[in-house]
Write a structure and sequence with these properties.
This protein is mostly helical and 201 residues long. It has one domain: Four Helix Bundle (Hemerythrin (Met), subunit A). The N and C termini lie far apart (60 Å).
Length: 201
Amino acid sequence: MEDKREERDYGGAKYGMWFFLLTEILFFGGMFLLYSVFRYRFPDQFHAGASEENLVLGSINTVLLLTSSLFMAAAITAVKRGNNKLSVILQALTVVSGVIFLIIKGTEWGEKISKGLYPASPVLLKTGKGEILYFGLYYVMTGLHGLHVLAGIIVISFMMYYTATGKINKNYPVRLENAGLYWHFVDMVWIYLFPLFYLVT
């Protein structure tokens, strides 16, 4: 009876996470659509805005998130093989990668703010409408993504505790799997954000 209950809980948890991710996809999809419309209307000014981006830091952040997804996938595999200790280490590496990502993103924001490139700033208001829209979308979309990264860091930190205490194990890894799905989604969003803001031509 207990096995059947766990199997039912396992399926329900997975379906619930996929439903949640679907709402997130619709949410970010709407912003991507909005970006596309304005990018089409103001191509030159979006290109001018993108010229202010730090391609090196953006690329480093991309590598960080892709590597963190690898760590997370390996952590789930480790749990399924009964190696909780290794899984905790890999989850910790995922968290560290996420923290470094946020620090770098904060550095990028700081650079732009120091130049006066932030919403409603006197410097930005002197530029064209397209650049104003570009930076408005930049702060909103990367800011929301950053909040999702922070949420993922918090969730995975809890998963580390559950894994270390055995509440997550090879017989019931669903919590960690759902955390992994969320983290992969966050990474996927960045894969779209990176070319939109750093590789605009």
